Amino acid sequence: MVYGLQVGYVNNIFKVGANLVNTQFSLPLKLNTKAHSRYRFEGQNLQNVSAYYQYNLYNMLLFGESAHSIGSGWAHNHGLIAALGRKFSASISYRNYAKDYHAFFAQSLQAQSHLSNEKAWSLSFAFQPNRKIEWMNSVDYVIFPWMKFRTKEASYSFLGRSQISYIWYKKGHLRLRYQYKFYQENYSATQKGAIAVADVARQQARLIFLYKLNNTIQIGHQMEVKEFHKSNLGKKHGFMAYQDLIWNKASWRMGGNLRLAYFNAESYESRLYAYERDVLYGFSFPSYFRKGFRAYFNQKLRPIKGIDIWLRYALTHYLGQTHIGSGLDQISGNKKSDIKLQIRYSW
Length: 347
Description:
The protein is an all-beta fold. Helices cover 0% and strands 64% of the residues. The chain has no helices and 21 strands. It has strands at 2-10, 14-29, 43-57, 60-69, 74-83, 88-97, 118-127, 133-144, 155-168, 172-186, 197-212, 217-230, 234-249, 254-265, 272-273, 287-288, 290-301, 307-318, 323-324, 331-332, 335-345. It has a 17-stranded antiparallel β-sheet, with no helix packed on it. Strands 15-16 form a two-stranded antiparallel ribbon. A two-stranded antiparallel ribbon has the order 19-20. A hairpin with a 3-residue loop joins strand 1 and strand 2 (14-29). It is globular and about 60 Å long.
């Protein structure tokens, strides 16, 4: 059972408030035996309290929140966003989540799946000289004071991004993004290093093009390259390119898309991901690993009023493989396909 209380005050330039949340389990949670879980929550009842604020001053926004899990740690996140004229904007924030801070429903800027065990500074900068060009940059430097999943000692990470976009108003965009991430993790079981953790560097560059040819048809293209480098392991590379054709004809009561993709990833660490359109309420974000081709077709029809039909078919063809997967999931051959059919009646 979860229950809470929120009180606040708001006017044109100022906002302030406080939260109280209580989480009660019917049975107590127990910690696992892994060392990195030593400061995770254990027990049957958790209370969280927090206070937040937001203040607008001309072209600046000051914001922040401090929270406490009663009986354990604190969490803080404070920052400033500023418009530096018509063409520039920037932001800076600092966060500090204690290793023994517990919260089941907290959502904030974070480098891990759970909100704890990190101290970080984040900076971002955007430049938009006109309505067609936009250049965005960000950096995030994080320290992990305690060990975490796959890292048996304190560590740190750095993430930098830069993206430049050329935008055709209401028609499409051309975007180039570069990302560099450095972090630390344990060596693999078959490796031994002079130090406890290995350094990992990951670079990715992505080119995206989307353009609306007319009111019915759009085309899209994406290319992405990735380099993965871990101490004592060497460099691994990945490449992916795909072409999309998207259509939507309201008068015909139909819409859909077709994609053809090529991928070549040397290892699991250099795999790439790409979002795919799916049936209603469906979600598809597959990884592109090994070498091969992938194609999928997604179609929506409304033959009569109140009836919607979705059909999706996808096929992946791996080159140089005699089987796919392992155990009960193993497939003989080098092709993997799936099909979805969904029908909805609404009134």
